Amino acid sequence: MSSIEQTFEGWKSTVGEPLLAQQDTRISTRNVDVFYADKQAIFGVDLDIGKNEVLAMIGPSGCGKSTFLRTLNRMNDTIDTCKVQGDILLDGENIYNKGMDVVSLRARVGIVFQKPNPFPKSIYDNVAYGPRIHGLVSRRAEMDELVETALRKASIWDEVKDRLDQPATGLSGGQQQRLCIARTIAVSPEVILMDEPCSALDPIATARIEELIDELSNNYTIAIVTHSMQQAARVSQRTAYFHLGRLIEVGTTDKIFTAPDHRLTEDYITGRFG
Ligand SMILES: Nc1ncnc2c1ncn2[C@@H]1O[C@H](COP(=O)(O)OP(=O)(O)OP(=O)(O)O)[C@@H](O)[C@H]1O
C-alpha cells in the first residue's frame, strides 16, 4: 500500500459542504462505491447537486471524476465489469431501482461527452431523434418548433437554420458540440452532465460553450467534469475535488480556489500535483 493510500485508510468524511437542504437538492448520492471488476474506483461518495446550479468536478487524472459522473445517469451500465453500490436519488427516487426505465432516465439526465458525437444524420434529425423515440410530439409543425427551440437554446440556430437538412458531421467541432447540447435539451432534461465538453475545442469555441453553460444554468442542473481549473472557476457555483476515488472537499467555487480547507485540494489547485 502506498503512503497516499494509507492516508485514506478508513476514510469517510468529506471536508466542506457536500450536502444541501432537501428542497434545494436535485440529485443526492449516499455512500456510493464503484468497482471495475475487483478494482474499486469510487469510495463512499456523499454529494448533493442543487437545482439550477453548476457543480464542477475536478481532480487529477484517474481520480474517478468521469466514473462518478456516469453513475448519475447509469451510463456505467454499459460497462460489463462495472458495479455501483449505494444510493443515487433523482428528485428523491433511487435511479438504480429495479423498475427504473433507463432510456427515460437518460432523457431526464442527459450527457454531453468530451468529443462531439453527432449521429450520421442531418442537423434536423439529430435534434428530432430523441423527441421521436420518446413520442414527445406527433405533428411535423410541432417537431419543427421543438427543433428550433432546442437549437436556439444551444445558441446554434442562426448558424444552421438554412442548412437543417445537411449532415451534422459537416459542422465545425464547436458547432457539433452545441448541436449535441441541443440534442440533449430537446428531450427536456432536468439535469445535464458534461464530461470535459470543451477539451476537443479551440479557445473561441470553448468560450461559446462556457457562455452557453451559464445561460443553461437558469433552467437546468449541470454537473461538469473539467481538467481546466480556470473553466471550473468561470462556469460553476460549487466545486467538488476528487482524489484517488474519494471526494475530498466540496464548497463554493470561490472558496475552493482561494481558501480550500484540505491540504490535497490546496496542493492540486496550486499546481503541486495533477
Ligand atoms: N472501463 C473501465 N474499466 C476498468 N477500469 C476503468 C474503466 N474506466 C475507468 N477505469 C479506472 O477507474 C479509475 C477512474 O477513472 P476515470 O476515468 O473515472 O477517472 P478521471 O478522473 O475521469 O480521469 P481523467 O481525468 O484522466 O479522464 C482509473 O483508475 C481508471 O483506470
UniProtKB/TrEMBL annotation:
InterPro entries in the cross-refs: AAA+_ATPase, ABC_transporter-like_ATP-bd, ABC_transporter-like_CS, P-loop_NTPase, PstB-like
GO annotation (BP), single: phosphate ion transmembrane transport
One Pfam family this sequence matches: ABC_tran
CDD domains: ABC_PstB_phosphate_transporter (cd03260)
Domain named ABC transporter: residues: 27-269
SMART domains per UniProt: AAA
SUPFAM superfamilies (UniProt xref): P-loop containing nucleoside triphosphate hydrolases
PANTHER family: ABC TRANSPORTER I FAMILY MEMBER 17 (PTHR43423:SF1)
Name by which UniProt lists this protein: Phosphate transport ATP-binding protein PstB
Gene for this chain: pstB
